[in-house]
Structure formats: structure tokens, C-alpha cells
């Protein structure tokens, strides 16, 4: 069993069955002591992840409501630790947003209408058929002992930067939107 957040979606699979149940079946959201995990399901959306707000306190329901209203800048400006995924069933889009500090790294890989997301680089790496080394990023990592971009040492795996929203839709196109700075 995985000990990290993990989600793998193939839009073609969602056409065959109940979309929400198919996604939930592929979702791994293990318990976390702090911040705690959450999962909220509404009529035309569902959201989950890890979330805690400090000062001012914003509860999970309020944070999810900000997602529903597309107030992403307001979410990332919160003083808290979080990784939130939000699935808009009407627009058929998934959004993943990270806090300002990047407490929860979120690695992802896209291929056509498929996306794999995880807080574990290794779990995303294992989902690749034939991973290829990104030589520039590997040399940068050796030189600096840190990666300072959304690119990783594996060509097809990216890292969602802090205070950034990843949006992935049915057409297989994704966008990274830096929300602060």
C-alpha cells in the first residue's frame, strides 16, 4: 500500500463508468498526522488532499468553496500547509494547488489523456513505461544539490512549484499557473 497521495486518471476510462467512483477508486489518500487529510464530495465536484490553516483560520469547507468559485489566488495566499485537488465534474477539469512553502511536493506526469500525480517521485517514476534521464536537470542537481525549476531529473516528470495551480482537462492539455509573485 502506498503511503503517499497518489492519483492516476485516464479520461477514456471515465467515459465507461461512473466518473466519480472511477476516480475515487484510483485515489490513494493515506492518513497524515499533520495536516490531516480531507475529502469532500458535492453535486458537481469533489475535493481532497491535506489541509490546515493557521491565522486567520479558514476551515476546509471555506477552502473548498474558494475552489468552487475559482479563487485560486486567495487559496494560495492562506497561511497554511496544504495540497488540494479539486475535480470540477461539469467542466471536466482537475486542479491541484500547493501552498506557499511547498510542504507537500506534488510530482506529475501527463501522456495524452492520462495524468499521474503523487507526493512521491518514486510512485510517479514507477508509472512510466520507459523513463529517460533529463541530463540538464541531473547535472544541475549534482551541482546545486537542489532543483530550482518544475523540471526533474526524469524527462517526463514535473514538480508542481509552491503557490501554483495545475489544471488538467479532458483534452489532455495542462496548464501551470503561478499564483503569487
Strand content: 25-35%
Helix content: 10-25%
Question: How do the helices and strands follow one another from N- to C-terminus?
Answer: EHHEEEHHEEEEHHEEE
- Tell me about the biggest sheet? 6 strands, antiparallel
Give the helix/strand class: alpha+beta
Architecture blueprint of SSEs:
Elements: E1 6-10, H1 11-16, H2 19-25, E2 27-28, E3 37-41, E4 45-53, H3 60-68, H4 72-76, E5 80-88, E6 93-98, E7 106-111, E8 114-118, H5 121-126, H6 135-144, E9 158-160, E10 164-169, E11 174-178
Antiparallel strand pairs: 1-2, 1-8, 3-4, 4-5, 5-6, 6-10, 7-8, 7-9, 10-11
Describe the structure.
- With 181 residues, the chain is an alpha+beta fold.
- It has 6 helices and 11 strands.
- The N and C termini lie far apart (38 Å).
- The strands form 2 sheets. A 6-stranded antiparallel β-sheet has the order 3-4-5-6-10-11. It has a 5-stranded antiparallel β-sheet with strand order 2-1-8-7-9.
- The longest helix is centred in the last third of the chain and has 10 residues, at 135-144.
- A hairpin with a 4-residue loop joins strand 10 (164-169) and strand 11.
- The mean pLDDT is 86.
Relevant terms:
single chain, 181 residues, alpha+beta, six-stranded antiparallel sheet, 6 helices, 11 strands, globular
Summary, kept brief:
The chain is α+β, with helices and mostly antiparallel strands and 181 residues long. It is built from six helices and eleven strands.
